[in-house]
């Protein structure tokens, strides 16, 4: 035991230094995060949503939302402030965290939630990997903890490290501190310029995952109950896709219809395969409208919102 | 349980602590139990196969040890090799061979429904099979004594740090250590921990980060232009080096923590100035095995063919290397390309030597740099076949690289992190290669410098490593 004494003492000292450094790292990254947020609010969509925005209308979704729904058009039409919280690659759990993050801080008049037929299906491996984007909010929000625990059994142990909370965020913060939000327009709308290449025009058939994830469903119901109890109106929107598909028999879709009925939530699905929009010139790829299609869709959406919700009367 | 899983980080320290508590006589059995438990975590049913291969190896070598007649010994050796190879053939190559026969018969208009096996490949089978064969041959050649302790034989083939992805150890190196397992000295623990730390950095920060980009490009070849494919092709060898090299370091470090010395597997391969030198630095344990058990016997048998004997030996050796890597045409093509490179080198070796001497190039830094670059690019080209799913896809990639220019696919965050990590790795390798006594961080005599360097690497791993379920490229071998 004596010959291990030296190494044990050094190990203990090293562990103490690691813990202290970890705490300092956490504070440093939090400082960087806030600095980046103040310089690039649109580029720091998630952080802006969780900490700052106070818009009347909040758009929640993944890339199809951020590239297809134009806040300026909705603002002019609805007469309310609008912010697009859509973020590439963010599936249910991140979107769910954003909605809860918003209603924790204030009561928006309307949440436009961009959903899809497989919205309630099991997140893919990539989706779970993307969950690390909400790591920084781990210690503040219970629903973030619940979401992150779905990644792995030991995630909560890893998240004890402040440096791990900000894993792979350093360059993002540094970049956002230096570069302006050139790729975004007002309200965090991110236009996709250009049209589909000829090679992408070919195969338009889409097969959906036919699976309902009970954990996703449970969290979704919790969130909708919170929205209902705070008097927040929610609308589900199906953003158009340039695909040939049939989702009527998908479990996730059928369950979403049931939930919408239960919570008296309007689903705007007419525009999903609207003839006015099914033009390859309006799409950047099969899943995303481009900067030509997005204004057309947003105008149609605005009309649908006004009609479906009698929006001027309700708000 | 992979090395990067949380379970292993809990499992390993416990194993080391108990290893040092257990009485010396029981250490082999203790490690054998731990190794089998480690394997059972992944594929419990194939533990039986591992045990069978162990028993066959043990029995064959004991039998050879009792036989004096060389002819009979040779027959026992051959029988042993066939028996040990049989599971590898069945699990890994049976379907491929049948499909190939079916395809060949199809060329002559004969349609045959060949049977297939739908079993999962036992993890580590390629590694422990080669180790078993090496031991059998070494006993036959009387290079090692027959090991009478079945526990030692079992542990040799199942030792948990090396069973999944090597290094491919030798009986001559392992048995003396296994038969005299000593407690971990403090210097073993620190040296082992340092190796493991650097191995985790290579795997989590370099390999897995590069994989995000390389997989994104190679996973969608039709949609990426030649420029992106070229860049991804250049990154791929670095990814493989960091992946397998990092894994090997973790394995070597883990063994070192228990006082055992495992053979190294990589020796800064991108500083090689020739393909033959690359293969003396890359996956060294495999190449050494192939050299000793395949290349040397064949080249000896063909020695009368002179340089052409060397060429044939090289082609056969690397054909086997390709087949070992995977049951697919792509790996065979990959192996053959390596063989062609080395054969050309063998044929022009004298001329190259004379040229270098004549122009005094051997120590010329620009010439050395150019040679390293050419070797790297040639290796990267061959690795395209290792990465692609089919040979046609490999050719498609190479054709696109030379014909379809365009804007490179950029993921600035991934490439930014990858750039920093590769720089750190390159810095260390450069220092180790050219200035081994300078800028000593991990080995500094000042404890403050050592602690700061461990802290820095740990920070890189925790804050910039890809910590979401990465898999070793060599895992399925």
How would you classify the helix and strand content of chain A by structural class? alpha/beta
Please give the radius of gyration of chain B in angstroms: 23 Å
Largest sheet of chain B: none
Number of distinct beta strands of chain A: 7
Distance between the terminal alpha carbons of chain B, to the nearest Å? Answer: 16 Å
Strand order of the largest sheet of chain A: 2-1-3-4-5
What structural class is derived from the secondary structure elements of chain B?
Answer: mainly alpha
Strand content of chain A: 5-15%
Total number of beta strands of chain B: 0
Order of helices and strands of chain A: HHEHHEHEHHHHHHHEHEEEHH
For the termini of chain A, the CA-CA separation is 74 Å
Apparent shape of chain B: globular
What summary fits the major beta sheet of chain A? 5 strands, parallel
Protein chain pair with the most extensive contact, residues per chain: A-B, 33 and 26 residues
What is the averaged pLDDT score of chain B?
A: 91
Using only C-alpha atoms, the radius of gyration of chain A works out to 22 Å
> What share of the residues of chain B does DSSP label as strand, in percent?
under 5%
Helices and strands of chain B, in N-to-C order? Answer: HHHHHHHHHHHHHHHHHH
Poorly predicted sequence stretches spanning 5 or more consecutive residues of chain A: none
Provide the low-confidence segments of chain B as ranges: 470-477
Overview of the structural elements:
Chain A is an alpha/beta fold and 315 residues long. Chain A is built from 15 helices and 7 strands. In chain A, helix 1 runs parallel beside helix 10, helix 4 (71-78) packs parallel to helix 14 (293-309) and helix 5 (92-105) packs parallel to helix 12. The longest helix of chain A has 38 residues, at 2-39. The longest helix of chain B has 38 residues, at 70-107. The radius of gyration of chain B is 23 Å and the shape is globular. The interface between A and B is medium-sized, with 33 and 26 residues.
């Amino acid at each position: 035991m004596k010959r291990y004494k030296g190494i044990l003492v050094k190990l203990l000292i090293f562990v103490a230094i690691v813990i202290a450094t970890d705490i300092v790292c956490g504070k440093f990254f939090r400082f960087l995060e806030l600095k980046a947020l103040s310089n690039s609010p649109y580029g720091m969509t998630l952080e802006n949503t969780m900490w700052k925005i106070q818009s009347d209308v909040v758009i929640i979704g993944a890339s199809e939302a951020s590239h297809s729904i134009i806040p300026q058009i909705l603002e002019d039409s609805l007469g309310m402030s609008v912010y697009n919280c859509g973020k590439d690659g963010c599936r249910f759990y991140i979107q769910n965290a954003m909605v809860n993050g918003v209603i924790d801080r204030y009561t928006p008049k309307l949440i436009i939630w961009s959903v899809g037929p497989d919205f309630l299906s099991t997140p893919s491996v990539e989706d779970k990997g993307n969950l690390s984007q909400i790591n920084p909010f781990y210690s503040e929000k219970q629903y973030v903890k619940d979401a992150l625990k779905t990644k792995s059994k030991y995630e909560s142990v890893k998240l004890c490290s402040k440096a791990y909370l900000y894993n792979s965020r350093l360059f993002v913060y540094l970049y956002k501190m230096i570069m302006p939000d050139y790729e975004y327009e007002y309200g965090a709308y991110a236009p996709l310029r250009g049209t589909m290449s000829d090679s992408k025009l070919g195969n338009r058939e889409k097969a959906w995952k036919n699976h309902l994830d009970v954990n996703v469903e449970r969290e979704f119901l919790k969130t909708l109950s919170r929205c209902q109890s705070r008097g927040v109106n929610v609308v589900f929107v199906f953003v158009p896709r340039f695909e040939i598909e049939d989702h009527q028999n998908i479990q996730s879709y059928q369950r979403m219809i049931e939930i919408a009925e239960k919570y008296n939530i309007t689903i705007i699905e007419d525009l999903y395969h609207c003839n006015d929009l099914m033009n390859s010139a309006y799409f950047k790829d099969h899943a995303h409208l481009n900067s030509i299609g997005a204004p057309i869709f947003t105008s149609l959406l605005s009309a649908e919102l006004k009609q479906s919700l009698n929006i001027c009367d309700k708000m | 349980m992979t090395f990067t899983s949380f379970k292993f980080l809990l499992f390993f320290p416990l194993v080391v602590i108990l290893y040092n508590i257990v009485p010396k006589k029981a250490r082999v059995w203790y490690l054998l139990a731990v190794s089998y438990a480690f394997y059972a975590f992944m594929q419990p049913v194939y533990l039986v196969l591992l045990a069978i291969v162990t028993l066959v190896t043990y029995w064959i070598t004991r039998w050879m040890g009792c036989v004096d007649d060389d002819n009979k010994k040779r027959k026992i050796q051959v029988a042993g090799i066939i028996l040990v190879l049989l599971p590898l053939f069945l699990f890994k190559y049976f379907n491929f061979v049948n499909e190939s026969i079916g395809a060949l018969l199809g060329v002559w208009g004969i349609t045959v429904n060949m049977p297939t096996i739908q079993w999962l490949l036992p993890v580590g089978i390629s590694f422990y099979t080669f180790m078993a064969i090496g031991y059998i041959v070494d006993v036959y050649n009387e290079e090692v004594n027959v090991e009478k302790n079945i526990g030692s034989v079992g542990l040799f083939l199942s030792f948990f740090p090396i069973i999944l992805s090597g290094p491919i150890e030798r009986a001559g190196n392992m048995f003396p250590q296994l038969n005299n397992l000593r407690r971990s000295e403090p210097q073993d623990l620190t040296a082992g921990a340092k190796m493991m730390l650097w191995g985790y950095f290579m795997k989590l920060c370099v390999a897995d980060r590069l994989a995000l980009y390389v997989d994104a490009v190679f996973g969608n070849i039709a949609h990426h232009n030649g420029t992106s494919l070229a860049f991804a092709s250049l990154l791929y060898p670095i990814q493989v080096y960091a992946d397998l090299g990092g894994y090997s370091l973790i394995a070597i470090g883990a063994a070192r923590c228990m006082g055992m010395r495992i053979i190294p597997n990589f020796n800064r391969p991108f500083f090689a100035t020739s393909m033959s030198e690359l293969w003396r630095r890359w996956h060294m344990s495999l190449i050494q095995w192939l050299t000793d058990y395949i290349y040397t016997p064949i080249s000896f048998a063909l020695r009368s063919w002179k340089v052409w004997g060397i060429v044939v030996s090289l082609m056969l050796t690397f054909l086997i290397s390709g087949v070992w890597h995977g049951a697919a045409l792509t790996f065979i093509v990959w192996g053959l390309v390596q063989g062609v490179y080395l054969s050309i080198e063998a044929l022009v070796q004298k001329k190259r030597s004379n040229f270098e001497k004549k122009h005094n190039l051997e120590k010329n830094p620009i010439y050395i740099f150019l040679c390293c670059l050419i070797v790297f690019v040639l290796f990267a080209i061959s690795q395209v076949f290792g990465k692609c799913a089919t040979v046609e896809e490999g050719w498609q990639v190479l054709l696109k690289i030379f014909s379809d220019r365009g804007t490179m696919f950029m993921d600035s965050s991934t490439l930014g992190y990858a750039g920093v990590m590769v720089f750190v790795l390159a810095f260390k390798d450069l220092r180790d290669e050219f200035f081994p006594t300078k800028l000593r961080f991990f080995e500094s005599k000042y404890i403050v410098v050592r602690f700061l360097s461990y802290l820095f690497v740990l920070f890189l791993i925790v804050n910039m490593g890809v910590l979401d379920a990465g898999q070793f490229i060599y895992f399925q071998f």
